């Protein structure tokens, strides 16, 4: 029992220590925001291109690694927004599915239009 308590206490202390260190690092970037789905898609496309260009080099310099590190913040912001929007999109599609299954034409049309409106922002 003492070993388990010690292990849990140690893990908590390590987690807390890592959290404090992360908060104390002022040199980190925030990246470009992705407040809308359109912004997220644009940032995701643009910054994946930048990442691909850097990774295509035969060798990465320290400056290249710094650039990769910096641009990942924007990609993380974009992915966070995309994940939230696509989760909501999946819920909307499920509403279309259930409505169509139950013969509810009105809901199928309404939710289907909502689904397509969002989906068209992600793909052309």
Descriptive account of the structure:
Pfam families: DUF6746 (PF20531). Residues 72-99 form a coiled coil. This is Soluble cytochrome b562. There is one protein chain. The chain is mainly alpha-helical. The chain has one domain (2-122). The chain has helices spanning 2-23, 37-55, 62-101, 105-122. The chain is elongated, with a radius of gyration of 22 Å.
Keywords:
124 residues; DUF6746; mainly alpha; Soluble cytochrome b562; 0% strand; signal
Q: What are the segments in which pLDDT stays under 50 over at least 5 consecutive residues?
A: none
Helical content band: over 70%
Question: What shape does the CA trace take?
Answer: elongated
How many strands appear in the DSSP assignment?
0
Q: By helix and strand content, what is the structural category?
A: mainly alpha
Distance between the termini: 59 Å
Order of helices and strands: HHHH
Task: Give me the Rg, rounded.
Answer: 22 Å
Average pLDDT over all residues = 85
Q: In percent, how much strand structure appears in the residues? A: under 5%
Question: How many separate domains?
Answer: 1
What oligomerization state is this entry in? single chain
Number of helices: 4
Biggest beta sheet summary? none
